[in-house]
């Protein structure tokens, strides 16, 4: 039997179905087509203090990235307005 390798995102979502949504391990494993022991191991690994801290850091980083992207968009829009204003005033002097 070939060993199936699941992505980290798949594992995280499978664990969330059990830990956050309250589904049982056996039901979730059956629905997703994984062995219940594999799901239990994923839960142990992803719910460890180190994993929780890693995910918190990633969540904070993603929030910071979104904030910076929003700020970049605002600053780019402001720059474009200033460029247009400079062209306008340069053409209307004299």
Automatic annotation (TrEMBL):
Recorded superkingdom = Bacteria
Could you mention a single GO BP entry for this protein?
Answer: DNA transposition
GO molecular-function annotation terms? Answer: DNA binding; transposase activity
Read off the Gene3D superfamilies from this record.
Homeodomain-like (1.10.10.60)
Coiled-coil region(s) at which residues? 51-85
Give the matching InterPro entries. Homeodomain-like_sf (IPR009057), RD_transcriptional_regulator (IPR051839), Transposase_8 (IPR002514)
Q: Which UniProt keywords apply?
A: Coiled coil
Q: Does the keyword Cell inner membrane apply?
A: no
Name it: Transposase, IS3 family
